[in-house]
Write a structure and sequence with these properties.
single chain, Alpha-Beta Plaits, two-stranded antiparallel sheet, 6 strands, about 25% helix, Asp23/Gls24 family envelope stress response protein
Amino acid sequence: MVDDLKLARAVAEAALSTRGVHALGRGRYAEAATYGPGEKVLGVVVGPGSVRVHVVAGYPEGTPLPELVRRLKERVTPAADGREVEVVVEDIYLAEEDADL
């Protein structure tokens, strides 16, 4: 079994390499993170049977959110050590050059 921090780092890397993901989220009402000695991985919550990934979607990437979630699950599942993958889209980042739309 993979330790939680190692798993969280692998999931974070997989999520950030997914087209359409601008950044990892930090949690809306409570910090979304996995904690270990002297370290925390923001945006990934590792539980006993699941991994929850919090993301900020990039716009105008052009991918509908349901498609982004599907793509994220495909990318993250191999790194999740057999755990269920949950995706939380916390926010949408609007690129500055498109802010005047």
